[in-house]
Amino acid sequence: MNFQPIIFDKSKSLFVKTLKKRVDEYFKSNKISKYANFSMYLKSFSLIIFYFGSYTTLYLYNQSYYSIFLWFMMGVGMAGIGMSVMHDANHGAYSKNKNINKFFGFFITFLGGSYINWKIQHNVLHHTYTNISSMDEDIDSGSLFRFSPDQKLRKHHRFQHLYAWFLYGLMTIQWSIEKDFFQLVRYHKKGLLKIQKKNFSKEMMLLIFYKTIYYGYALILPLIFFKTWWLVLIGYFIMHYTAGIILSVVFQCAHVMEPNEFKSPNKERTIKRNWFEHQLNTTCNFAMNSKILSWFIGGLNFQIEHHLFPNICHIHYKKLSKIVQTTAKDFNIPYKSYKNMFSAVHNHYKFLKYLGSLKIA
Predict the structure, then answer these.
(1) What is the CA radius of gyration of the chain?
(2) Number of CB atoms found within 10 A of residue 324's CB
(3) For helices 341-355 and 229-255, angle between their N-to-C axes, nearest 10 degrees
(4) pLDDT per residue over 294-337, tens digit each?
């Protein structure tokens, strides 16, 4: 089945015009670039060194239980690189230079993922059709979870607020093993690869090649050179589980939340709202005053700003949030935010429980 897009109201509202004008004026008046600065580059290389440094140190302490902690550190590094480095780069928000974006965006392959699948799932489907069932794959998990009131309620969903936290940790290891392959085939059948001007056979060959490199250095080499093979398998699982938990919780706390709207495609495949207002109604922020959290997760606690301006580097989100919040208030448009990470996680827990018992409307 070919991909069928959904059309948003294309009329440019006064809100959209005002918001874009204020954001442009901010960068112009302060004479700063919308892209990365020195601190962004420093953070990027710090996280990359942290990950590969932990990996290298494993060769010195692979027989010790300290190795488990090093695998855990790699998991933290994976999540950090994914959210703070690769994410901006694959949005084209890191630099004006496309080669620099490609360089940093390519790090997803060293973490076991596929850059082309990520771009389609995240940039195209999630960012364009946020919280729209059957379009946004971030809320479509088959029958395992119910992330939207529009999705079918199954008996086991009554427990999803309990088992979700255990399964979230499997996200990256699932991607690295089988999801990327099935996803690439699905995107080919839907015509999404063609839209991205990508050849299926070539991308499948590249996917196999990159997976071979990843498993070669991340798992095969440690199994060959480390004496305790079972410690390697435990550590490797812990690495992925750590990254999976962090990534899942951060993204779920931005969209699968009680105040957000969820949509289903109508027969006309239209949304009677402009895209900017749709993003504000389907996204929320959290822990906006936490500098440490914001640094580590690449400003994704400012998810509203990221969705409105994905081509702007996350180092600017804190400042932009004041502009967006003021403009939204001026036009009586909701701007949703949770005070801290704990309150956001708690709300996500409650919303999962609610969806697990709520019958289809």
Answers:
(1) 21
(2) 23
(3) 80
(4) 999 999 999 999 999 999 999 999 999 999 999 999 999 999 99
**HEC per residue, 184-246:** HHHHHHHCHHHHCCCCHHHHHHHHHHHHHHHHHHHHHHHHHHCCCHHHHHHHHHHHHHHHHHH
- What's the Cα-to-Cα distance from 51 to each of 46, 56, 58, 195, rounded to whole Å? 9, 9, 11, 34
Domain ranges of the chain: 7-355
Q: Which residues of 195-223 are buried (b: 16+ CB within 10 A; e: fewer)?
A: eeebeeeebeebbeebbeebeeebbeebe
Q: In this structure, are residues 115 and 105 in contact, taking their beta carbons and an 8 Å threshold?
A: yes
Average pLDDT, the chain: 94
Q: Is the pLDDT of residue 51 over 60?
A: yes
Cα 326 off chain centre by: 26
Q: SS3 of 292, please?
A: helix
Q: What are the b/e assignments for 279-289, b being 16+ CB within 10 Å? A: bbbbbbbbbbe
Report the number of secondary-structure helices (H) and strands (E) in the chain: 19, 4
Six-digit token string for 269? 């495949």
Burial of 317 (0-12, 13-18, 19+ CB in 10 A): buried
Are 330 and 22 spatial neighbours (Cβ–Cβ below 8 Å)? no
